[in-house]
Amino acid sequence: MQRTLVIFKPDCVHRRLVGQILSRFEAKGLAVVGLKLIQVDRALAEKHYAEHAGKPFFEGLIGFITSAPVVVGVLEGNEAITVVRTLLGATNGVAAAPGTIRGDYSSSKQNNLVHGSDSPESAEREIAMWFKAGEVASFTPAGSEWVIGG
Ligand code: GDP
Ligand code: MG
User: Fold this and answer.
1) Distance between CA 139 and CA 52 in Å, rounded?
2) DSSP assignment of 54-95, as one string?
3) What CA–CA distance (Å, rounded) separates 34 from 105?
4) Quick check: 53 and 62 in contact, CB under 8 A?
């Protein structure tokens, strides 16, 4: 089992797509083990996107992610990091393949609806950054053997 961090970004919240997109992750077999709506402050935004500091889109990205509440979650399942990134599709919504979340709902480089951790190291760092220990649940979702089998 693997955990990954997802952030339903301000465009997703404004466009009332959180429920629909969360359903796609659940339908794929991922379980929600942490979930909350928060207003991100600049310090957390800069820490989360530290790898992009200095890039031309950085200031805009920080402004965007702090502009309205986000829903942040921890999803758990088999190969959860890769599964989420595959469902999300390419970063640029214009280029993202149809059938992916960004391909189906985004036409923007920045406003691409959902963040997903890109590696086990990123997932561990990001979950610790966004959630306190007691905010992430540990349990075995019923029927997991039917989701993963084989
Ligand atoms: P991700 O891992 O697919 O989310 O993409 P990156 O880590 O490369 O970039 C982080 C976020 O910055 C993306 O999800 C976009 O919201 C934004 N972003 C990335 N590249 C660009 C760009 O070229 N222009 C703008 N305006 N935003 C970008
Ligand atoms: Mg990234």
Assistant:
1) 35
2) TSTTHHHHHHHHTSS-EEEEEEEETTHHHHHHHHH--SSTTT
3) 24
4) no
Per-residue pLDDT at 149? 82
Neighbours of ion ligand 2 (CB under 5 A): 118
- pTM (2 d.p.): 0.98
d(CA 116, CA 25): 11
Burial of 39 (0-12, 13-18, 19+ CB in 10 A): exposed
Q: Please, what CATH class does the domain formed by 2-38+70-133 belong to?
A: alpha beta
Alpha-carbon distance of 82 to 131, in angstroms, equals 21
Tens digit of each residue's pLDDT (9 = 90 or more) over 5-39: 999 999 999 999 999 999 999 999 999 999 999 99
Answer yes or no: 48 catalytic: no
Mutate which of 88, 91, 94, 114 for ligand 1? The one with the most ligand atoms within 8 Å of its CB, which is 91
> Is the shortest distance between the CB of 60 and ligand 1 below 6 Å?
yes
Interaxial angle between packed helices 18-28 and 80-88, expressed in degrees from 0 to 180 and rounded to the nearest 10: 130
**Binding annotation for ATP:** 9, 57, 85, 91, 102, 112
